[in-house]
């Protein structure tokens, strides 16, 4: 068997004929010729027999390694004049537009990125992390289920920080599939508007319920004409309790700042260590934190009153209560918080009263962001693994590749090309 025939079977790329095989110390270069006489635009698929000109430099793509040897695919390509995209280099059937890697190589890297840390991936496939980010962006665009936005009736919306410095991505999940169906950089009204624009008016108005936090941005977008106007807006109880915890933290910091002004500087230092004793649930405290909490109880004051309010709010949603009972307890909490004189809790009470109907709707319908929050916890693990990406697109692509409606098909699972 000739070397060209052997490598035609080994590289298993459709639409090409192997014309030459070259060997070097660490690399194998396989030169191929496209079998099709028509030139295809890599962006839109437009084809023509008319050639604009020939490129003077051969194009190369990295393919799956042969043992310890890198395998490069080489081809002489022409340029065509696309009526939509202008003059550009013809596309090839074995690689995505703009890529210097074959589709098989990128599909493997995309799957590895969902299962391995970046150090192991870089060592295995011998590419840098920025290149990995660009690869998974292309794989995501190519692999997302085109029907993922169909039959959306109950959705969850939330934002996740992907990098320090207020860098967020907005994610939309389907309660039916328990997977993310859409994402975009940003966390404002305009960001979610893009989701409804892509969804279209008919599918948007078919949404029955939207679970979200109590921020104004997502609520404003969902209520715009042509968006989820028929949906019940549900404010997730998880976020209500989180606001109570945040209010307690603000009171704690105020007290800590006051202690810093005292002559006894150690008082502020000792008090700072009480943070987790206050913020954690009582059942999750360590023995040392339990002792600290008892000391704070004996001391009393604003901080202990704030802690009591936080626990009272958590208890409202901790038990399996119906809408009527939750409404009574929420009203009671708001009255107590309003009279407490603690500014963060007075603000919280005002927020809860303003969003009361949405909170009770979540209880009545049994809709919350629990599944979405479960996805968010996994997202944070993914973000930690994606540390070093310099664009929201790459971080979002890794999230969607791992938790989105994408079926990973590895090269050997596709079977041989005809």
What can be said about this structure in brief?
By secondary structure, the chain is an alpha+beta fold. It has helices spanning 3-11, 103-113, 118-125, 129-143, 189-199, 201-205, 216-222, 237-260, 265-272, 275-279, 287-299, 301-318, 323-339, 343-354, 356-365, 370-385, 392-403, 411-414, and strands at residues 16-23, 27-34, 39-40, 47-48, 53-54, 59-66, 69-75, 78-82, 86-89, 154-163, 167-174, 179-185, 209-212, 232-235.
Give a verbal description of the structure:
By secondary structure, the chain is an alpha+beta fold. It contains 18 helices and 14 strands. It has helices spanning about 5-10, 105-115, 120-125, 130-145, 190-200, 200-205, 215-220, 235-260, 265-270, 275-280, 285-300, 300-320, 325-340, 345-355, 355-365, 370-385, 390-405, 410-415, and strands at about 15-25, 25-35, 40, 45-50, 55, 60-65, 70-75, 80, 85-90, 155-165, 165-175, 180-185, 210, 230-235. The strands form four sheets. The chain has a five-stranded mixed β-sheet, with helices on both faces. Strands 1-2-7-6 form a four-stranded mixed β-sheet. It is elongated.
Q: What percentage of the residues does DSSP assign to strands (E)?
A: 15-25%
Number of helices, where a helix is a run of at least 4 consecutive DSSP H or I residues: 18
| Rg value | 28 Å
Percentage of helical residues? 40-55%
Nearest-integer average pLDDT: 88
Main sheet specs: 5 strands, mixed
Cα end-to-end separation: 19 Å
Please provide the count of β strands: 14
Q: What structural class do you assign from the helix and strand content?
A: alpha+beta
Low-confidence stretches: none
Basic shape: elongated
Strand order within the widest beta sheet: 12-11-10-13-14
């Amino acid at each position: 068997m000739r070397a060209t025939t052997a490598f035609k079977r080994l590289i298993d790329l459709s639409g090409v004929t192997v014309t030459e095989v070259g060997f070097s110390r660490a690399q194998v270069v396989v030169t191929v010729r496209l079998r099709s006489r028509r030139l295809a635009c890599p962006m839109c698929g437009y084809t023509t027999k008319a050639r604009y000109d020939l490129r003077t430099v051969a194009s190369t793509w990295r393919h799956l390694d042969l043992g310890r040897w890198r395998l490069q695919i080489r081809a002489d390509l022409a340029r065509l004049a696309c009526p939509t995209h202008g003059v550009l280099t013809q596309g090839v059937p074995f690689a995505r537009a703009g890529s210097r890697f074959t589709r098989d190589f990128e599909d493997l890297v995309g799957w590895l990125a969902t299962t391995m840390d970046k150090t192991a991936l870089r060592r295995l496939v011998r590419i840098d992390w920025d290149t990995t980010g660009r690869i998974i962006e292309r794989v995501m665009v190519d692999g997302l289920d085109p029907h993922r936005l169909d039959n959306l009736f109950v959705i969850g919306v939330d934002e996740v920080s992907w990098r320090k410095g207020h860098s967020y991505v907005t994610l939309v999940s389907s309660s039916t599939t328990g997977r993310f169906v859409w994402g975009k950089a940003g966390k404002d009204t305009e960001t979610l508007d893009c989701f409804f624009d892509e969804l279209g008016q008919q599918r948007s108005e078919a949404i029955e319920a939207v679970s979200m936090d109590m921020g104004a941005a997502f609520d404003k977008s969902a209520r715009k004409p042509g968006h989820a106007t028929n949906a019940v807006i549900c404010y997730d109880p998880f976020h209500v309790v989180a606001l109570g915890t945040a209010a307690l933290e603000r009171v704690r910091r105020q007290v800590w700042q006051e202690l810093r002004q005292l002559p006894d500087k150690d008082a502020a230092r000792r008090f700072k260590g009480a943070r987790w004793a206050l913020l954690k649930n009582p059942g999750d405290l360590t023995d040392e934190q339990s002792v600290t909490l008892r000391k704070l109880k004996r001391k009393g004051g604003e901080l202990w009153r704030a802690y009591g309010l936080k626990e009272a709010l958590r208890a409202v949603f901790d038990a399996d209560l119906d809408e009527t009972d939750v409404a009574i307890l929420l009203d009671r909490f708001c009255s107590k918080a309003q009279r407490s004189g603690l500014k963060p809790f007075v603000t919280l009470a005002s927020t809860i009263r303003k969003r009361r109907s949405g909170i009770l709707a979540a209880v009545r319908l049994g809709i919350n962001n629990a599944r979405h929050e479960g996805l968010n916890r996994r997202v944070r693990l993914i973000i930690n693994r994606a540390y070093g990406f310099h664009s929201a697109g790459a971080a979002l692509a890794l999230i969607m590749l791992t938790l989105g409606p994408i079926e990973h098909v590895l090269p050997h699972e596709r079977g041989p090309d005809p």
